[in-house]
# Entry
Amino acid sequence: MSEENKKTPHRGIYLLPNLFTTAALFAGFYAIVAAMGGRFEAAAIAVFIAMVLDGLDGRVARLTNTQSEFGAEYDSLSDMVSFGVAPALVMYEWALHSMGKLGWLAAFVYTAAAALRLARFNTQIGTVDKRYFVGLASPAAAAVVVGFVWIAGDFGLEPRRLDWFAWVVTVSAGLLMVSNVRYYSFKTIDLKGKVPFFFLLLAVLIIVLVTLDPPKILFLMFAGYALSGLVTTAWMLLRRRRQRLAGEEADKPAEK
# Structure
């Protein structure tokens, strides 16, 4: 073997985390196919499965020390399909198609916002506070959109009666993704370290609640998370305003 061949590094990819990413991509693709066939409950469930798999691929990569640039790029492309294109098409096929141009424009706004959100996230890695997301994360936005479809079907509601509600939900989720609203990222939770016993009980309680009524509990959870960012951002802006006013009062000369 020549010296040149010895110095050439072996090119390849890490299998385990990319298998989870591929599974998430498959779930997102299946959601599109299911929606085109009118199986909207299956489509919504597929997007939620993609969310779980998307959360696992990054965790697995960090725990096994198999992070790579390829994996990061592949994950972003998978997210675009599962949380950008799939939710928009599910909502369009379910209710927005009856609105004509307004319907597909709303679906496009959501899709474009997801692409912009992912691009901004990739360029801000390492430069923003890891405790918070800037803008609603695309998996959470997807959960709100398909969760709305799932819970409406669970109640037996007709899509034509909810087309404007569906339009508002779709556009609002898209705008929140590209907004500057801050959301807690949960990235500071150390899965390898010790945690209080209460956290295990809380996890069990959440699993039980989701099992009792998945469409209602999941939609309420992610809708609440989407609203939490607005509340948190408003509180932070109010606190900064009060601090600024307090500073201005302190700088004023004392009256004689």
